[in-house]
Known about the structure:
The structure holds two protein chains of two kinds. By secondary structure, chain A is of the alpha/beta class. Chain A has three domains: 2-88, Four Helix Bundle (Hemerythrin (Met), subunit A) (Up-down Bundle), CATH 1.20.120; 103-298, 3-Layer(aba) Sandwich (Rossmann fold); 306-440, Signal recognition particle, SRP54 subunit, M-domain (434 Repressor (Amino-terminal Domain), Orthogonal Bundle), CATH 1.10.260. Helix content of chain A is 58%, strand content 9%. Chain A has an eight-stranded mixed sheet with strand order 3-2-4-1-5-6-7-8, with helices on both faces. In chain A, strand 5 (217-223), helix 11 and strand 6 (245-249) form a beta-alpha-beta unit. The radius of gyration of chain B is 21 Å and the shape is elongated. Chains A and B meet through helix 3, helix 8 and helix 11 of A and helix 3, helix 7 and helix 10 of B.
Amino acid sequence: xxxxxxxxxxxxxxxxxxxxxxxxxxxxxxxxxxxxxxxxxxxxxxxxxxxxxxxxxxxxxxxxxxxxxxxxxxxxxxxxxxxxxxxxxxxxxxxxxxxxxxxxxxxxxxxxxxxxxxxxxxxxxxxxxxxxxxxxxxxxxxxxxxxxxxxxxxxxxxxxxxxxxxxxxxxxxxxxxxxxxxxxxxxxxxxxxxxxxxxxxxxxxxxxxxxxxxxxxxxxxxxxxxxxxxxxxxxxxxxxxxxxxxxxxxxxxxxxxxxxxxxxxxxxxxxxxxxxxxxxxxxxxxxxxxxxxxxxxxxxxxxxxxxxxxxxxxxxxxxxxxxxxxxxxxxxxxxxxxxxxxxxxxxxxxxxxxxxxxxxxxxxxxxxxxxxxxxxxxxxxxxxxxxxxxxxxxxxxxxxxxxxxxxxxxxxxxxxxxxxxxxxxxxxxxxxxxxxxxxxxxxxxxxxxxxxx
Amino acid sequence: xxxxxxxxxxxxxxxxxxxxxxxxxxxxxxxxxxxxxxxxxxxxxxxxxxxxxxxxxxxxxxxxxxxxxxxxxxxxxxxxxxxxxxxxxxxxxxxxxxxxxxxxxxxxxxxxxxxxxxxxxxxxxxxxxxxxxxxxxxxxxxxxxxxxxxxxxxxxxxxxxxxxxxxxxxxxxxxxxxxxxxxxxxxxxxxxxxxxxxxxxxxxxxxxxxxxxxxxxxxxxxxxxxxxxxxxxxxxxxxxxxxxxxxxxxxxxxxxxxxxxxxxxxxxxxxxxxxxxxxxxxxxxxxxxxxxxxxxxxxxxxxxxx
Lengths: 453, 306
């Protein structure tokens, strides 16, 4: 990860040496391409893919774009990003729906990729789109795999078709289709056992299931953390079965996910969904452009913006601004703000989405931000009565003592927090005052960056 | 089991690894007439392709370059032996063993991200220890994933060992506590605690792991005797990150590398040892109950290059 985050920096350095030279030579570009190549390797993009990708980049870099650019480093990154985005393809988070139900979806992949969990998530997602799914327990090998799917079905209140583990998956799949037809289920999701792509016997079994039930979608489930082997896996599954799409799992971790690029490039099949968490609603459409930035270590700015938009209530923000202007900002509002921030997830993960934050800065940030401190502050406010929150001036010694006890803090901490709050409020008053003045004088509206519109 | 038959098994398990890794190096060596920059660059790429990682690959090639200079090697064919030496140097010479010295009880905690094969590894490990005459007890500490407890119980039955469990959703630290009490009462030699798979980036889940550890430490001083991080051999460079963060949170003492039978690469082992110096202690090289063994660095390097 560390090496990768420095790609932008390294490219800058490579080109810095060349400043004043006036013109880039082929050797200079070769050097830059090497950095790009290593960075892609570090992100687990497959060797084969990197090689062919590199040629494309080279062509464009040798063109005029770079040579005439004042900031060749940035230009190279832009080209790489553009090409990556293009290679990843457009958004295609749709499942082929059969004209004559039921639609049959089959999930395949290596052991531990997350097929069973994904089956549950996918059923949940498609049910929201109006489908009536049936989950099929086709993993008869792994201990308790059937039970796992049954539990998921129970949690989601979606029926699970199972015939135990003593019967062939082909027969189970066939039985499931019949069951779906006679029970009004228009979507069948078949979970299969994880298998190594080199295990011929098990690959044959998948082929037999395919021949028997003729699925409309065969989705390959791939762990986002997969290394160089991803390409081989995708190739084999695609050649043997014909894969219609890919679901990338565990993308909520910190893997760069170069495997995604390899799979797309090798199979040409779209990545349709991404698993983003442990909860059963954490399956999202896959965004190719964001993945490109992620692989390049440029931060997931788009996701961050979207997250912020989803978490912040526009109306509330407006209200807050009025309050600020009138200097009515209270501890209640403060608590509100904190909770809105928290909805976006831990501060650390928000920071990770920002571009340009390297490991070193990240560490510094982490030292400064104390999530526990935030929790303590919240506890302090929550230990106050509504009246105290609106009017902190009434807080006397005994009230403070009670608050400290209630929040598990010390009275000094309560005092310190109140003092900070007063200072913040005073500052806000000043800002708000400035804004008013500016508006009056017809100047450009000065806006508080934090509170948005 | 004699050394040679053991080596044969490992070699079979590693066939894919070897084919990809060594064949490429051999091809490179036999088609190269002169040792030059292009040669080194290509070698570096082969290593990276084997999931050895950029840093470690560069380091290896750098060392190789130095050796070539020092020993005045001109024939590319000699380089394979030198590279093998260098890999072995990173991996170390010792045979790893598990710390079973706990009195009256040794406690192992098994951790890792989702889907790496923690529960399966525990099943195999229980079988192995039992075959060595140890009384083993398992604790179903994955109270999160659906049917994880059932899965461990099935493995417990197969291996013929007791499983201590709570209900789904229970506090894993409480399971650990009960398991320690039970293991003491039943005079077990070894208690192996399963934990739920978690991505190392989830701070709250890593805190949960610390709590499990604290509970064990409090009950038996000096425990846990092993904290095994299970890594999937098909994982790429993220494995290093996993080892780093789990190491900080749970105090990992060793790695169990799984699914080495199917992956084309074994390079991640070298990468982790070189960057973090966490030893690989166990490797899973097949789906059978017996297919878990102690990692022998020497043997591994041997099998990798033969």
